[in-house]
Amino acid sequence: PNVQQESTFWSSSLNNLIDYDYLSKLKYAGDFYLWLQFSKACDLKIVKSYIGGFKFHGEQLSSTMVGNLNAYQVEMRSMVAKPKVHQLALA
Asked: What gap in Å lies between CA 31 and CA 33, rounded to an integer?
């Protein structure tokens, strides 16, 4: 699942969870970093209404995401721990 960032609001207290120096070094997965940090403190609430939209622009990184997908995934994986063997085992 994806978070529609254009329609996302959060309490300003969540900003204290962000390491802005680390965030500034991320080229592709800064959004993933934000949601990862926020998810450690609270649950996502869904509003069933149209409150925002998204428009593609030619120079945005996501417009060339196919070419940048590997770099995005590398950044994402650097933020999360690899699962342990016992977490992968089926019951």
From this structure: 5
Is 14 within 8 Å of 41 (Cβ atoms)?
yes
- List the domain boundaries for the chain: 5-49+61-88
| Residue 35 near residue 76 (C-beta atoms within 8 A) | no
Do 85 and 41 touch, CB atoms closer than 8 A?
no
pLDDT (tens digit, 9 = 90+) per residue, 4-42? 777 888 999 999 999 999 999 998 889 889 999 999 999
Nearest CA to 76 out of 38, 43, 34, 41 is that of 34
Place of tokens 């120096």: 21
In whole angstroms, how far apart are CA 74 and each of 28, 31, 77, 79, 91? 9, 14, 5, 9, 30
How far is residue 54's CA from residue 34's CA, in Å, rounded to a whole number? 18
Query: What are phi and psi for residue 79, nearest 5 degrees?
Result: -95, -15
